[in-house]
Design brief:
The chain is of the alpha+beta class. It has a domain of about 90 residues: Pdz3 Domain. Helix content is about 30%, strand content about 35%. It is built from three helices and seven strands. A hairpin with a 2-residue loop joins β2 and β3. The longest helix has 26 residues. It is elongated and about 70 Å long. The N and C termini lie far apart (about 65 Å). The relative contact order is 0.14.
């Protein structure tokens, strides 16, 4: 092989290693996700029990906060279905957009149910 070929091969190897490292790092970085729960943002994180969504922010005057949801609450289920990802949460909540939202959350060691009505689509109460 020529010297240029060796340099090219080394650069390709370094790029591949960098890409793999970035992919692994991105998987372990928590992502804040705006979910179909009005006024709530979730942080997706991996736990020993598997992936979970944790409330990372709430609109202070929103229906979820008024219903009792707190920052730090861990989402266990939505409408009775496990909600381990934002996709699962959307699927569970989108089946009936007019129905109230029923969440089961873990706060510390306690399991709690938080239920609330969805705000009007045109309103700002969420």
């Amino acid at each position: 092989m020529t010297r240029v070929a060796w340099i090219g091969l080394a650069l390709c190897g370094a790029a591949a290693a960098s890409g793999a490292a970035l992919f692994h790092a991105a998987r372990s970085i928590p992502m804040h996700i705006r979910a179909p729960v009005p006024g709530v943002t979730f942080l997706r994180t991996d736990t020993e029990e598997g992936p979970r969504l944790i409330v990372s922010s709430l609109r202070s005057n929103g229906v979820a906060a008024k219903a009792g949801l707190h920052v730090g609450d861990r989402l266990e289920a939505a409408d009775g279905q496990p909600a381990e990802s934002i996709e699962a949460l959307r699927k569970d909540l989108d089946h009936d957009p007019a129905a109230p939202i029923a969440l089961r959350i873990r706060r510390g060691t306690a399991l709690l149910d938080v239920d609330f009505n969805r705000p009007n689509r045109g309103g700002h109460s969420g």
